Amino acid sequence: MTSPKDQHNADTQHPHNMQLLYKTCRRKAKELQTTVEALKKKLVRELAFGMPLFRADPLLDSPPSAADSRETGIERAIGQGAKYRDLLELCAAAPTGDDVLFLVACWLKQEGIRQPEDWLPAKVYARLTSGTRKRLASISFNDHRYAAQIRRYLPYAALLLQNARRLRAKKVADPEQELLKLGYDRTDAELACSKNWTSEIAFTCEWLAARGEVKAAKARKDPDTARTLQNAYSRVFGKSAPRLISCAFCSKPAVSEFYGHDRTSASHCEDHSAEKLPRKSGDAWVDRAGRRWWNPDKGIRYDSPAAPPSST
Ligand SMILES: [Zn+2]
Description:
The chain is mostly helical and 312 residues long. The chain is built from 13 helices and 5 strands.
């Protein structure tokens, strides 16, 4: 029988899924290439209201169809009911009216119903985004653009690196060939195997430079695109940078993020790093959206409030 872990590995290593992940990252990166003002507005919105309240669910996220079986219909109804219950719980626990508006804005945004700026009264919107706007104002626009691009592609590059590390750990004769067999192209495979990468961010910057995915805003004297990208990233998200995102588990500024088994991410502070995540499901940390996170060593697990705790 296939264990859930094997199934997860098979899913993430399937060439079709990798292509899909690449296309998703690329589409999100393309969406960034708008005018300066539009991009600034978008950044404020994404940073202030980007917290996902519910985990992505292929069944719930697809529209009901006449071809659905009775079981699918029932599952869908239960899932929708659970979402409603979770939303009530989150709103009931929110300390202030602004917190309720914030949760509803995140919820409507995630469901693709309304963008926060389209329905929140201007004064409320200004209040809910004031911290984010202040922190954004102190960093150059190009740095934002590069850092945002890196974050858009990070899930794909991180998975590529993870696959390369897994092959190296298995001591296969030619990891580069194995990556090609998995469906990666030559640039991906060569770069991932070129050295023992320790930083996902450094790798993503080199990868973006090698693929020519990020174009410099104007011709630069410095031809080292990867270094330009990495400098921008550390000015926006690095240790001495003004913090744009707060930790998902407390109100401290986030220093990085980790990914769950299905690539859902959580931002975290120094005290809430992946290494410090509890090993047992029963000791899991609960983030601000009510999701429980724990670390069964190889792949970080999480549950949304609606899901029963998993035994792994
Ligand atoms: Zn924290």
